[in-house]
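Sequence, structure tokens quoted for completeness.
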Amino acid sequence: MKNVSTIACIAAALVPSVLRAAEGELVARPLGSTDAPYGHLEYVPPGYAEDGVKHPVVLFLHGVGESGDGVTNLEGPMKAHGPGKLIDQGSTYFAEQGALVFMPQTPVWWDANTIHAFLGYIAANFRVDPRRGRAGRGEVGHLESWVASQYLEQFESGVARGAEDGDGDSKVLG
């Protein structure tokens, strides 16, 4: 019994350090490694584990060129455009905004019900500021932002808007 409680104490002590290790970094969460219905990249801003406040969410729904199974080729395509590209290149914009960034990967066209389930995963597992949600899109058009906007109400009063910068990259609009 003493060994079990010792192991539990060690495990409890390690969990916050694992969370802190992921802060400020773009982390791959392959399909099946979490309860999320998509494999995805996530970014948690520095200080998230300690600050206890709600954070804005940026949801980037990729275009056709970044499609994949959410497991075997998650990082490469998802860092080609949008927030993944910016964070990978060292941008501090999302850290400065205190933003949580999520970039799910789908092998086919986006499905509204699965996006809804993904937003539910985010809402259940992260401290989300419902007034500051954003959805961006890749080059496949306005549908992804429209679908996401239908479900950002899940965060209460979130508004989804996205814009392209000419090469399909998403921008966060204020």
